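In the previous lecture we treated proteins in isolation. Real proteins rarely work alone, and many bind small molecules. This record shows how such a complex is specified: first the sequence, then the SMILES for zinc ion.
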Amino acid sequence: MILYQLLCHKGHDFEAWFRDSGTYDQQVVAGDVACPFCGTSVVNKAPMAPHVAIGRGKGRKRSGAEERAQQVAENILEAVDGISREVEENCEFVGDEFAEEAKRIHYGESEERRIYGEATDEEAEELDDEGVEYIRFPFIRRRDG
Ligand SMILES: [Zn+2]
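The predicted 3D structure, ligand included, written as tokens:
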């Protein structure tokens, strides 16, 4: 079973279970999937990854607690995505030079600016040791680059 987040053409979003992605395609083309709010069968997958149910949870309705946990997870992902976008638009990407460049900026050897990039755990520790300020977060790269 696969759970899709769907969006009707009037902007209502809702979730629906399908046996697999092929079943989803067939049912949407056949107009069998209707928006529970307005009844239209003009629906599309909302732009997010599908949830796949595995193992013994198969086909079972999710509990309220699971729904809430899912909602919290989605909110966090959305927030992280927003931060990623902010960072991409306002900071210079330095790739795996991040730790080196952060240190150079810290010691005034490089122009002071906002940068982002990747650092290994060891590099992050070095930055901590040298008192370089930085934040760490799970970066979501946009697919369109
Ligand atoms: Zn609708």
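Summary for your notes: The helical segments are 21-29, 64-90, 98-106, 121-129. The pocket of zinc ion is lined by residues 8, 10, 12, 35, 37-38, 40 (CB under 6 Å).
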